[in-house]
Amino acid sequence: MDFSWLAEPHTWIGFATLLVLEVVLGIDNLVFVAILANKVKPAQRDRARITGLGLAVVIRIIMLGFMAHIMTLTRPLFHISGLDVSGKDMIMLAGGIFLLYKATTELHERLEGHNQFAVADSQKKHARFWSVVAQILILDAVFSIDSVITAVAMVDHIVVAMGAVAVAMTVMISASKPLTEFVDRHPTVVMLCLGFLLMIGFSLIAEAFHFHIPKGYLYAAIGFSILIEAFNQISQRNSRKNDYISSSWRKRTAENVLGMMGIRESVLAKAG
């Protein structure tokens, strides 16, 4: 077997480029994984993330292996009122509906006051472990259709694509815990992320009906929203810092006064 292609520069350039693309395209997936992982018991959250994303690696590798068949999903299967419907279109439609359903139910819970961040862990109703893992797998399968097609289109050898996907998923697994902890500490970020998922769900449904939405528009909207949320987080952090400084000054003053009173009382007690 000839492995001379491994020494070719464009092979490694393609690998590096694909690796970066896979990580960037997987960020929105990680956000939803972080939200889903918080549905299970605290002791099971790390295992849910690792199990779900670990099995997702296997799914993506299998999808790459059967890429020749998956690429045929773009061929029309039937026609509806002049609209060519392919397997990929049906997957996009199902995926978009799934994202809209999950994002809407999550938003409903928080808008109705059923915010899991405001409830003690002992009082939460936790989801079943394998139910959450299954949802992570479904989500990743939806998001991986385009990324898998991109992977095969960018490189000449399927092994390179498999390697890039495996490394990218390893990076995603490593980043899933810090991201989950960040989301846990900043509940407002969850609302922003759910808004992203609604937008992505609508875009998938639009793509299924052949209404192409330029990715640049989506990225611009997401980037602007992230910028506003960053300003919001900075404002909240500065507000908390000012409150802490103010409260610390009052606390120190009160402790000094009470300390002086305590000393005076002890002196008076000894004198009496």
From TrEMBL:
UniProt keyword list: Membrane, Transmembrane, Transmembrane helix
Matches recorded under InterPro entries: Integral_membrane_TerC (IPR005496)
A Pfam short name: TerC
Chief location of this protein within or outside the cell: membrane
Domain of life of the native organism: Bacteria
Location within or outside the cell: Membrane
UniProt topology in membrane: Multi-pass membrane protein
Membrane-crossing segments per the record: 12-38, 50-70, 90-108, 129-152, 158-176, 188-211, 217-234
A GO cellular component entry from the record: membrane
Family: Belongs to the TerC family.
Protein name: Integral membrane protein TerC family protein
Upper classification of the organism: Bacteria, Pseudomonadati, Pseudomonadota, Betaproteobacteria, Neisseriales
